[in-house]
Structure formats: C-alpha cells, structure tokens
Amino acid sequence: MGGVLGKNESPSSPKASVPETKLEAKITEAMLRRETEGSSIRSFDSLVLKFPKIDENLRKCKVIFQEFDEDSNGAIDPQELKHAFNKLEINFTDEEISDLFEACDINEDMGIEFSEFIVLLCLVYLLKDDPSALHAKSRMGLPNLEVTFETLVDAFVFLDKNKDGYVSRNEMVQAINETISGERSSGRIAMRRFEEMDWDKNGMVNFKEFLFAFTHWVGIEDNEDEEGEESACAHLD
Question: Cα 175–224–188 angle (5° rounding)?
Fold first, then answer.
C-alpha cells in the first residue's frame, strides 16, 4: 500500500474547481476508478434493507479498535494510529497517515473515536492497492470486513448517477424517487438525507462525507460507549 496517497495520476477530477486536499483528491480518483465497474444496488430500499447487517459487521471493528487504542481512553491518537498501521503492515508514509488522521478526526480533538475509525478503515480499503498487505489484513481480521466495505462503496456508486465521484442533490432525489415513486414526501426525504451527508454545505457529497452520514444512519454512534459483554462477542472469525 506504499505511496497510495502520493502517486501522481493523469486523470483530472471533473470537479477540479472544488478545493481539495491531496487525500480528498486521491479518494475521488479511487472512487472514479471503482465507478467504472458500476453498482449492484438497484434501489435505495434495497440499500436500507442491508443496514442491520452492515451495522452488525461494522460493530465487529470494535475489537480491532480496542487493540489499537493502547491507553484504552476511547480514542486512537496519532502515535497509536502509526502503531496500528505498522501492525497491519500498511506502508503509508508519516505524511499520509497524518492526512488520514486529520481527515477522519472530525471533531478535531486529536483522537479517532470508533465511528471515525470505521470511516478511516473504509477509506484505507478504497485506497488499498498493494497485494503484499493481504496477509497482515487476514491476521487482523480485515478480510471479513471487506464485503461490508465494498457494500458501502457500492452504495456510493449507486447514488452517484453521473459517476463523477460526487453525489449531488439532484442525484439524491433521483435515487429516492426510484425507490418511492409517487409519494409526495420523496423530495423532502431526499433533501433531509442529502443535508445529513453534505457537512460542508457545498452542494456536493464526497465519499468521506457519505461514510460519516452512513455510520449515523445505521446507528453506529448510538451505542459507541457500550462496554464489556458486546465486545467480547465481537471477534472476527
């Protein structure tokens, strides 16, 4: 996975006028490559039906999160994240790890909480391109989460109708209308979902924004502080 965030690639982003960090540009480029494969999701309803299973599988990340949270304070700090990447044998540079940390530390408290950690893992999944990391991911249990991460990527591809790496308001309305055609409330539902995703209010949603909204939709944040018995059953087999 070495140098994933720092490669120079020729295709320019269709949203080149939008200010982006280097990491955001790499995420968009990776999504554009993935979108050429299309999506297996056919309606928003079919996506909603997947929420319980996605929720269940994402919560299994808690075991990995707790392992990386070396001081058990409920958050992964920058140094712990570097240790985590070393354990996973993911060869990111210090700058790349710092960029990921900053991108996922939404509340800017210098700690990656559980829902933020899930987003970070999914971004790493999207950006991964080094087969040499597969053995390490197997040892840490990540292959068992790849189907779930791929579902999240697939969901974004479904929403991004024009395949430009972003979801617009109109695309969200189109996705909802395909599901609940004829209901007057469909437009309002689409706008509410879009506003939940569009954190920076620029009228476009990138994959990172989508992931944070998705963890909220499936309820990851609701029980983030639950301890004990639940985590004991969360081993990834």
Answer: 25
